[in-house]
Amino acid sequence: MNIHIIGGGNLGAAIALGMAKFSTEHQVTVTRRNTSSILYLEKLGVTVSSDNKHNIQQADIIILTIKPYQVDTVLAEILPVISNKIIASGVSGLSIEALQSKIDEDHQAIRIMPNIAAQYGASATCISFNEKHAEQGEKLVTIFKDLGTAPVIDEKLMDAATVLAASGTAFALRYIRASMQAGIEIGFDWKTALAISAQTVKGAAEMVMEEQIHPEQLIDRVTTPQGCTIAGLSEMESHGFSSSLIRGIKAAVKKIKGI
Q: Of the four listed, 110, 180, 215, 220, which is most buried by Cβ atoms within 10 Å?
């Protein structure tokens, strides 16, 4: 399948890199005005171009990973030279209805929200599509399952998915950074503290995903009466550990919705 990614920034490049590594049956093109920072993708078989229209007529799927203010300009550039394409948008805040109205019924609008962990095959990519485009939507599901997980969600949850899955990467990294800093304070050098913190988060995530149970049940396995774990958890919660994270996620959703 020929996949054309317009917008070779952090997200677009991560998707291209993930496809090159984990979906080798696809032919991938990624475009960016200044290509110097993504030329390394060529060594992995990805076509890199500064021209958004480069071989776009051969594309089966066009993925938009651009800023919202760039959408109309990019569509005006490519629509005259394409027909009957699946156009998947990773543009924050752009609804399926709004995109479909811009591209007309000649093309099929799909909404996606990957994250930059796609380059490691570890993205949580939420996908939404109209029922009449279910066949095209399932093609995106298949592609992004190679790059991690790809749940199909109701579009009304897409703003929330943007925060939980995409912004959530930064939130998780902030926890790892804090854990690393604490590790330094209790005696480790920063590289060892970071390695331990990152691996611990990875292990915890794998436990949740493999066992499919509530995190609190797994926490109970680690905590013992009057032990160090419950002492640490109690201190964190007394300073708003969980509540501050919840408040941050809700604040980010309000920002997207313009509330």
A: 110
